[in-house]
Amino acid sequence: KACFPIKVGAGDRFFNVPCLRARRSLGVKVDGVREQINGVTSFIDASMVYGPAKLLADELRTFEGGKLKTEKTTDGKGRLMHEDLPQLGVFKCRNKTINMDRCPHAGDPRANVFAGLTIMHTAFHMEHNRIAGKLAEQNPQWDDERLYQETRRILIATMQKITYTEYLPNLIGPHMMDVFGFNDPFTYDPDVDASVTNVFGADAFRFGHSQINGPLKITNQRSPGLSEIYFLPEVMLEENGGVMKVREWMTWRMD
């Protein structure tokens, strides 16, 4: 029963086990039918930046100038070198079994799982602060709450724009964009049910995992497999590579 329902055939070239364990997600009965519980929102609302609930959103805020918290790194003379996601204590990391001194904190707990995710979280986190700074310059009369909410609206719109005009056209192609009406004029409808179906959320959505390239290039001399750097966000700080090399790897295409 522990291995239901994924059996591994004899002589499999990769898995040397009789079967793979598959744990079911938490569920709840709705009209007598078992349904999945979704821990995040179904909308494209930048919840990976701000969190799915107010408690986490507030934890990430500075409550000054509409900005989010960051971890500042300085050189020996106190000059700012770069800013990163705020850090959690080691014992609050998602993985507590390894010796690590960095644990990025973001709207989604998986920000410290994989360096590629960490970079994406960092990029949008910093973009929020950049926009907030610009809005503060142009609207000095706005308080922290106004700056935060207006910036959040802009970042959400940015993510929606990227999703529908850049990501989806490349993913499903122009024909399917027309089939689903994604190129048609539209107006906002607050009555649309944005819930994700069980079959998509629990199964089909995993197709994205196969879009990740192979070994992660951290430096010119080091390209570990993805399984070797899970929960090791500090790899981005390695000399002669780190963030820039991971960014190069993320934008590399396999034709």
Write up this protein.
With 255 residues, the protein is an alpha+beta fold. Helices cover 33% and strands 9% of the residues. It contains six helices and six strands; from the N terminus they run ββββααββαααα. The strands form three sheets. A two-stranded antiparallel ribbon has the order 1-2. The longest helix has 36 residues. It is globular and about 65 Å long. The model has no long low-confidence stretch (mean pLDDT 80). Keywords: Glycoprotein, Heme, Iron, Metal-binding, Oxidoreductase, Peroxidase, Secreted. It comes from Elysia marginata. GO terms for molecular function: heme binding; metal ion binding; peroxidase activity.
Structural class: alpha+beta
How do the helices and strands follow one another from N- to C-terminus? Answer: EEEEHHEEHHHH
Number of β-strand runs: 6
Strand content: 5-15%
Q: What is the count of helical runs?
A: 6
Low-confidence stretches: none
Helical content class: 25-40%
Largest sheet: 2 strands, antiparallel
User: Looking across the biggest beta sheet, what order are the strands in?
Assistant: 1-2
Shape: globular
- How large, in whole angstroms, is the Cα Rg? 21 Å
Multimeric organization: single chain
Span between termini:
41 Å
Arithmetic mean pLDDT: 80
